[in-house]
Amino acid sequence: MTTVTILSDNEVATSRPKGLCAEWGFAAAVGDVLFDAGQTGVAADNAATLEAGPFETIVLSHGHYDHTSGLPPFLEDATELYCHPAAFDPKYGDDDEPTGMPYDRAWLESQVDVRTHSDPVEVADGIYALGEIPREFPDNPTGETIDDDGRRVDDPVRDDQSLVVEIDDGIALVLGCCHAGLQNTVVHAEAVFDEPVRTVVGGTHLRSSDADELTAIARWLEDRLEYVVPTHCTGHDARRILQAEFGDRFDRVGVGSTIEL
Fold it and tell me: Which residue, 258, 133, 256, is CA-closest to 205?
């Protein structure tokens, strides 16, 4: 059984142990793997408080600052880091402010063995980084990047990936921000592993205010999943609708929560 412990999220789930902090960002311990690193160093502080780690293996869901800026404290123990090659691409928000990873590849490679990949790769026993995700259903692009000709263009966030965890009756997904789209991620994981997705934990990027759109996605998921645990970039409307559809198969979590997969 693999345990997921939330180290960075938008809210703290529990008053104990004392001293846990929230931030806009995401990080989780997935077994012995660190998935994302949060924004400010809060994830490392929370990991110490929760006695999670140290982590030799790190996987980045994508290259946005709120999932990568908190890396340095974890690099002291890490031996390998997995990410999509485009995680190092420049990224900009709508206000023209940089939103990408604040560390270039050369510096990161001086700290840890960086292993870029686009295809699925096993990063620990029964845990896989999914790689680049085809997009049949709507996705969640955001901001801008620079193309090969040096032009500023819309960023599809093609570096977005999730973790796949083998469980007894199928697979579970741990999401960072799901810019590739939740439906696309579920369908691709099932196609790659030829197993049904039973559980989804993490940032869903369901931030629309369109209740009909959110309800349609929630019902699509409810027909497939046994358990849903949204975090980080899941809007309040989406949480409410997911809880209505899943009932006691929905769980609200935050920093300090543990989920047994």
Answer: 133
